[in-house]
Amino acid sequence: xxxxxxxxxxxxxxxxGGCSISTTGSVRSGQPATGVQPGTRLYLLDQHGIRPAxxxxxxxxxxxxxxxxxxxxxxxxxxxxxxxxxxxxGGRVQATATPGVVTLRLSWPAASLSAPAIQQLVCxxxxxxxxxxxxxxxxxxxxxxxxxxxxxxxxxxG
Length: 158
Prior knowledge:
Number of strands: 6
Number of helices: 4
Helix content: 25-40%
Largest sheet: 4 strands, mixed
Strand content: 15-25%
Distance between the termini: 55 Å
């Protein structure tokens, strides 16, 4: 048999054979996706590094509330899951948002923070509710009066 004769035969077999997936009708599988999960998104640490944790709530906290919640540390449920914070106790962060940039003013020297602690602040800030695109984060403290630009390693695109 030649290729010219086989081609129409192969096409006819493909058309009549279908893909062998039977129809099922509608399948119930729970609620549809609704977008961003409500609650406060914090970035905490575990033995593998930084990871997001969502505190369930009916709405998300604003940026300053989110940072205050982060500074309060992990709750009991998060602690039982092995999560912890590397941020100092008793400190304060004041967030000031301008278009495209959030400046974090720290009440302690930036040099006293570990790299994971800085990532906790930056990732939480980038993920907190703001208007517009993900902001750049600048950190200002007593030992770093000039703003130091930071980016969340988990959100880094390039």
